[in-house]
Amino acid sequence: MSNTMKAVVVTARGKTELKDVPVPSPSAGEILVQTRAIAVNPTDYNELLFLTFLRAGHSVLTLFPSRDFLAPEGSWLGCDYMGVVSKLGEGVTNVKEGDRVAGFVHGGAWEGEGWAEYIKAQASLVWKVPDNLSDEEGAAAAGVGPWTVIQAFYFRLKLATPANPTKEAEPVLIWGGSTSTGLYGIQFLKASGYTPIVTASEKNFDKLKQLGAAACYSYSDPDVASKIAKDYPKLRYALDTISEGKTTVTAVKAISQAAGKGKVITLLTNKDEELKQFADSVPAEPTLLYTVLGVEFEWPGVKFPASPEDKAAMEGWMPLLPDLFKSGTIKPNPILPFDGGLANITEGLDYVKSGKQSAQKVVYKV
């Protein structure tokens, strides 16, 4: 194996370059993974988007008060990966060399974690990809989408899990059912005994119902909150995968008009003044997946301490994911393959940024 490899490095604000960097060596409790496929997430292009605005002299906090993303120059971009274990660090026993594994790292935060030919990862935060999934499907299921669902539903809302499903078939709303997180959310809710209801564009209704959505509502319908509340008067919980504009407010109103009390988990902080009147009965609380890595990190003006609780909880899910995917209980997002590998990553980022991606996942072979 060569001592150098290719990695997607942030070289200037809003720009990346495929550069030669040293192959990392795993420390105790870590593994080195030879990457076979990667997947693109909105969080990946957001890192560069905000750098571009900064370069133009704008304030990120002014333009995007709920998004404090910033990829410093020299950091490596990218989160989701699938590959083969190449080397074990001291003390690693849960995987062996040659195992197919998947996971995610904190791309865009610092040098050494992101899309590269080899990725160094915490051994306790990878899961073994079953043989019925291709490399690209493994990347599509690697981390950000399903792990965000796990964190939101089971860590934050304390819902019943697939291992011990509820018998009540309680409704749970997903705002943005055709997002990557939404697609996984539908399946995890169904596997956990809940009744998934979603908002989406009408073109995706059939696909979402095939995954298990009991009802689909148009997100553009001005009466969507009251219609959901009327159809599901016991609604108490929601996950807002969009968290922009009035999406959170509308999800909160649906619960308020239904059960009257509950909680909405968001993927971004929403400071809409209208939410204050519901703060006591239907609070909207953000969740941030990077906390499961158990490492302190900082975004502009905001420090996030290490969360050993989140990390330990996610570690407990790693042995469960292979069986969920092997059995077909959870299916990977439909993949949209792009050619060119790491050298052509900008095309995939631009595609996701354009909003063209819908009910599918942009993936690359490496």
UniProtKB/TrEMBL annotation:
Residues 11-363 form the Enoyl reductase (ER) domain. GO terms for molecular function: oxidoreductase activity, acting on NAD(P)H. Pfam families: ADH_N, ADH_zinc_N. Coiled coil: none annotated. Gene3D superfamilies: Medium-chain alcohol dehydrogenases, catalytic domain, NAD(P)-binding Rossmann-like Domain. It comes from the Eukaryota. CDD domains: enoyl_reductase_like. InterPro entries: ADH-like_C, ADH-like_N, ER, GroES-like_sf, NAD(P)-bd_dom_sf, Trans-enoyl_RdTase-like. This is GroES-like protein. The lineage of its organism: Eukaryota, Fungi, Dikarya, Basidiomycota, Pucciniomycotina.
